[in-house]
Design goal:
This protein is α/β, with parallel strands linked by helices and about 400 residues long. The protein contains 14 helices and 18 strands. The chain has 2 domains: about 190 residues, CbiD-like (2-Layer Sandwich), CATH 3.30.2110; about 190 residues, no CATH class. The chain is elongated, with a radius of gyration of 26 Å.
């Protein structure tokens, strides 16, 4: 399968090309950089614009066989001579100009980096960049700086350069990403640690989960609230006054998310989710994707056996196509409560096993039709803590 290149690689390539054209007067049609992973990226250049004191050029994002919402967008770099006061005088073209300069205070940096239109700006703590900075992460910043410095060294020019990264259409596309949840406003993030997009990799999602958990910790959240997705959004809001958007969306990576919460210093976890995912956790399945494991009906039948359900009920469960159908069967037979007690006991057992007993782990399980199916003993206390935290933070 074909790999792609990150927005960070696109930004670094565009910045290198624009720097070269600004300082030499030459025109390029392509440029090559070496990514942190060691792969050479040769990018075709688009939308080249020259002025007396600046050059803009763009590189189109190609996600390879693992495309995301940024694939096809143009990442632009505008490189100009930095003549502002504080670096060399003049006036900034945007309100954010001082933020990256503070990051470089006391250094002899010759390259100033900031975000323009379509690149988001950080408004909440706990992210890779400080509040106020453009959402250009550390590795892409270093890639951009290194490539522009290489042109300064090659040409022997003694000057400072200003690099503004922009992504036309980025603000609209960002609405379909995690950025609004993370407090990144006005556009996309410029990301990438290896510079390369691995095809069909789950790493980007795991990285996002870690970022969200780290941000919750930085904001002082007392509990790591996690949910696989938005199933039950209305139920949790209407029944408990809890907005699932305040939970970290852990997708299928329940075990990995528990690990991250422990690593980041949380002492309490509240996991809420639909029976279709949570029943798998009752069997110790910590990646709940259907390609990894299923056993939903087998686990419900095992819980039914422990709860004393009749063999005919167990056979019906094993023939059910969905967990909602299984819940209907258990409701009709009058044994849903007893079965769910067994399920919740096993969920808590395996969550405790995953974290080695180091965290308080609680869980709430619901279905699309019946609503609440079960909760562990301390779940409501943790829910109250979470609601109290968000109520106080909004005052």
């Amino acid at each position: 399968m074909r790999h792609g290149f990150t927005t960070g690689s696109c930004a670094a390539a565009a910045a290198k090309a624009a720097s070269h054209m600004l300082l030499t007067g030459e025109t390029l049609s392509e440029v090559s950089i070496t990514t942190p992973k060691g792969l050479v990226y040769t990018a075709e250049l688009e939308q080249i614009i020259r002025t007396e004191n600046s050059v803009i050029c763009g590189v189109q994002k190609d996600g390879g066989d693992d495309p995301d919402v940024t694939t096809g967008l143009i990442v632009l770099a505008e490189v100009s001579f930095d003549t502002r006061s504080g670096s060399a005088g003049g006036k900034s073209t945007d309100n954010s100009a001082g933020d990256d300069r503070k990051e470089q205070a006391g250094k002899t940096e010759r390259v100033f980096i900031d975000g323009g239109k379509g690149v988001g700006r950080v408004t909440m703590p706990g992210l890779d960049q400080p509040v106020g900075n453009a959402a250009i992460n550390s590795v892409p910043r270093e890639m951009i700086r290194r490539e522009v410095e290489s042109i300064l060294e090659k040409t022997g020019m003694d000057c400072r350069l200003r690099v503004i990264i922009s992504i036309p259409g980025g603000e609209e596309v960002a609405a379909r990403t995690f950025n609004p949840r993370l407090g990144i406003t006005g556009g996309l993030s410029v990301l990438g640690t290896s510079g390369v997009v691995e095809p069909m990799s789950a790493q980007a999602l795991l990285d996002t989960i870690r970022v969200e958990l780290r941000q919750k910790k930085a904001l002082g959240a007392p509990v790591a609230a996690m949910t696989p997705g938005n199933y039950g959004l209305d139920f949790m809001k209407q029944t408990y006054g809890f907005d699932l958007d305040q939970s970290v969306k852990c997708s299928n990576f329940i075990g990995a998310s528990v690990d991250m919460a422990a690593e980041l210093g949380f002492s309490k976890i509240l996991l809420t989710g639909h029976i279709g995912k949570m029943i798998k956790v009752s069997g110790g399945i910590m990646n709940t994707h259907s390609h990894e494991a299923d056993c939903r009906m087998e686990l419900l039948a095992a819980a039914g056996l422990r709860a004393g359900a009749d063999p005919d009920v167990l056979r019906e469960l094993l023939g059910a196509a969905t967990t909602d159908e299984a819940v209907r069967i258990l409701t009709e037979k009058g044994c849903l409560h007893a079965v769910m007690e067994q399920v919740m006991d096993r969920i808590r057992f395996y969550l405790q096993a995953r974290c080695g007993g180091k965290l308080q782990t609680e869980c709430i399980v619901y279905s699309s039709v019946e609503g609440l199916l079960g909760m562990t003993g301390g779940a409501m206390d943790l829910l109250e803590e979470i609601r109290g935290f968000y109520a106080s933070s909004q005052r």
